[in-house]
Amino acid sequence: MNIKIHRGTNQIGGSVVEIFTETTRIFIDLGSSLPDGDGNAVDEVLSIEGVTIGTPNCDAVLFSHYHGDHIGMLGSVLPEVPVYMGRVAKEIYLILQHRVRDGIPEIVQRASTFEPGVAFQIGDIHITPFVVDHAAFDAYMFLIEADGKRVLYTGDFRTHGFRGKAVIPMLQKYVGQVDVLITEGTMLSRANAKVKSEQALQKDFRQYLTKYKYAFVICSSTNIDRIGSICQATPKEKDFLCDDYQMEVLTKVRELSGHYSPLYQFKKAHPYKPFRDETMEKNGFCMLIRGQYTCKSVVDYYTRYHPDDTILLYSVWDGYLKQPNNQYAKLIKKFKLVEHAHTSGHATFDAIVEMCNTVKPTTAIIPMHSENRHKMDEAKLPYHIEYLQDGETFLV
Question: Is the pTM of this model over 0.85?
Answer without folding.
Answer: yes
